[in-house]
Amino acid sequence: MSSPAVSEDLLRTFAPQVLGTLLRRYGTSQFDLCENAVQEALLAAHEQWPAQGTPDDPRAWLLTAARRRLIDQFRSDAARRERELSQAQLTHPLAQQPAPGHDDSLEVLKLCCHPALTTSAQVALTLRAVGGLTTAQIARAYLIPEATVAQRISRAKAKIRDAGAEFPAPATPEDRLDPVLSVLYLMFSEGHTATTGDSLYDTDLTSEALRLARQVYAEIPDHGEAAGLLALMLLTDARRAARTGAGGLMVPLDEQDRTLWNQQDIRAGLDILQRALPGQPPGPYLLQAAIAALHAEAPSTDETDWAQILILYKVLEHTTGNPVVTLNRAVAEAMVHGPAAGLALVDELADHSLPTGHHRLLAVRAHLQERAGQTSAARETYALAARRTLSTAERDYLLSRARRLG
Amino acid sequence: MKYLVLMHVDPSVIESLSADEQQAIGDGHQAFLAKATESGEMLSTKALGDPSQSVVIRSQGGKPQVVEGPFAETKEFMGGYYLLDVDSLERAIELAKELPDASIDGLALEVRPVMFSAGADM
Fold it and tell me: Which residues of A touch B117 (CB under 8 A)?
């Protein structure tokens, strides 16, 4: 037994590795039992390691503990219906065991983001089976009842079993990565902006998404979008301390105290970006990270390279066809060609692509009206936008802008 | 995203239904509850007492005044709600349309997004 104690992060890093090993052996038909066994092993580690010391090989300890619990479950009455099958599998492993030290985390992540699942089920299952969070922790992060989370997870496991998903998936590591990246991005965004709720930040979800994005990037550093996502998260999260002011009020980018930006995160994001950008056509995450990088490198809004940002938004718009990207381009148009150009683009969007009452559209329009000196129109539009948003922090911010215009 | 499905009830409509039809409403709500729970979208539900049971607290001259119900002369009142957590507004509407209330003339369901959550059953 050795010290120092294994950190919570490291312990949870082992969770998907151990689960991957069990899934290779027993197959996704036993996903539920395997995953429960890993959770119980994590709990046991929490209880035993502080008193007994951290084992020399913590991963092997967890695997042994999980396997023992799994076999107990196989043999228990509760699992009687599956007993025959399970007993056969106990003696006849399904897949080749990987070489020692092989890490199945990414494969487990892909399984949890299986396309047969709804987004909310993918997120809940990922947080539990890959993130190693308990059902109660996930429930707290999303402010939903524990019973609802538990139901989502057990239903998701059943769906994966019914879909007959193979483990590991018969494909290259880069395959089926899209849903994984979008689940991590959603998790990060939820923590970052807290779309419903009174606090702009929910650090747990943000840091969990970052941790998982780091894991994915470490596994496939040459994948442009995996790199882009991690860089985007780092560059966005770097602004965390500056994004809220007194009383928790949201501070917009152009008014943020840039000395509060986390330079270490910015450097890390820029490093990843510089390694990833050359030699490949950039995907949506890389493009968004490149835009975030231009903001991160600028000492102020006026000194920002808006011309370059405008070009990147045009490429991003072309790649995604997403009207919200066009909305962001309107801000860049205004910075390069003046507020009238931006407002014209917003009007065009409102006529064609986005609902007239879309809160982001209204917020951008209000901002551009203010820049154009249309004070009373801006005040009205801010108030309208405030009524349409579902974030209390954003509502308070928009109302304060309206008040500021008298 | 969380949505509150508010049930707007008109007692005279409910009273005009046959016993079988009223039973069907109860059964329909049971089935809905089971389905939304199974899909992992149900957060909580409450049925409210008749508005004749209401007590209204309203400020008068800056001081709270307590008045016993009923407080409004409207035919419709809020009979209860379902709090759902779903992937989209479209899904919330799709679920709400399955409630028996959605197919009875004179009753209505209102779907509203939730902005802030706190408390035990959120």
Answer: 143, 196-197
What would you measure as the largest C-alpha separation in chain B, in angstroms?
50
A272, pLDDT greater than 80: yes
Please name every residue paired with A226 in a beta bridge, in sequence order, or none if there are none: none
d(CA B45, CA B88): 19
What phi, psi does A338 have (nearest 5°)? 100, 155
Kindly determine whether residue A391 and residue B121, on different chains, have CB atoms separated by under 8 Å: no
Triad A230, A43, A130: Cα angle to 5°: 25
Contacts with A119 from chain B: Cβ below 8 Å: 87
Torsion from C-alpha of B27, B32, B37, B43, nearest 10 degrees:
-110
Beta bridge partners of A250: A244
Sheet with B77-85, strands from edge to edge, namely B42-47, B77-85, B2-9, B108-113
pLDDT score of A195 more than 50: no
For residue B22, the tally of other CB atoms under 10 A from its CB is 14
Summarised one tens digit per residue, pLDDT across range A48-68 is: 998 888 899 999 999 999 999
**Cβ atoms of A349 and A326 closer than 8 Å:** yes
Report d(CA A377, CA A250) in Å as an integer. Answer: 22
Report CA torsion sign: A289, A291, A295, A297: positive
0.90 cut: is pTM over it?
Answer: no
Q: What is the pLDDT of residue A218?
A: 92
The residue of chain A with its CA nearest to that of B120 is: A145
Record the tokens describing residue A157, joined without a space.
Answer: 């496991």
Does the beta-carbon distance from B115 to A391 stay under 8 Å?
A: yes
Write out chain A residues lying below 8 Å of B40, CB-based: 120-121, 124, 148-149, 151-152, 155
